Amino acid sequence: MAADGGSDKGISRRSFLDVALGGAGLAWLGAVLYPVFEYFKVPAQGEAEPTTVVAASFKSLKPNEGRVFRFGSEPAILVLTSEGKLKAFSAACTHLGCTVQYRPDVQRIWCACHNGMYDLNGRNIAGPPPRPLDEYKVALKGDDVVVSKA
User: Fold this and answer.
1) Distance CA 4, CA 108 (A)
2) CA 87, CA 148: separation in Å to the nearest integer?
3) Taking a C-beta distance cutoff of 8 angstroms, is the pair 141, 128 a contact?
4) Helix and strand tally (H, E) in the chain?
5) Residue 57 burial by CB count (10 A; 0-12/13-18/19+): exposed, middle or buried?
6) Strand order across the 135-141 sheet
7) Per-residue DSSP letters for 65-78?
8) Among 84, 93, 88, which residue's Cα sits nearest to residue 64?
9) Distance CA 15, CA 9 (A)
C-alpha cells in the first residue's frame, strides 16, 4: 500500500521473493528429475544388423580350417572342410552363448566352456548344447566368401 492510501503499482519485496524462490525451486526440481528421466529413457536404436557380410578371402583359407568372424554384433564361424566345402554358422553356443571354435584334429566345432560338440552340419552331438547352431548361407563372389542369413 502506498502512503497516500492508493495501491502500489510496483512489485513488493514479498512478491519478488515468492517468485524468486519458486523459480529456484523449479530449477532444482528440474536438475534432480532430468537425470532420472534420462536414465530411464529408452535408448536410441543402434545400427541395423547386416544380412550379408564378407567373411574372408577364399585364398586366405586352408582346407580343414575354421575362422571366427563378426556378423554384425554377433560372432560367426566359417569352416573350410577338408573336402573343400564352405560352411558358416553362428558361433554362439546354443547352451550358454560362449563362442565356439573349430577343432581341426577332430573336424568338429567345439565349445570350450562346457565341452559341447557340433558336427560340420551344425548339429549338436555331444555335451550340453540343447539345439544345433544356426546355419548361414555361403557364396563365393570373386575371391570373397560372402555369408548371409537364410
Assistant:
1) 102
2) 11
3) no
4) 1, 10
5) exposed
6) 52-57, 144-149, 135-141, 86-90, 74-80, 65-71
7) EEEEEEETTEEEEE
8) 84
9) 12
Beta bridge partners of 70: 75
108 in helix, strand or coil? strand
pLDDT per residue rounded down to tens, the chain (150 residues): 444 444 556 889 999 999 999 999 999 999 999 999 999 998 887 777 889 999 999 999 999 999 999 998 899 999 999 999 999 999 999 999 999 999 999 999 999 999 999 999 999 999 999 999 999 999 999 999 999 996
Please tell me the distance from the alpha carbon of residue 99 to that of residue 111, in angstroms, as a whole number.
7
Q: Where does the chain have alpha helices with state H? A: 13-40
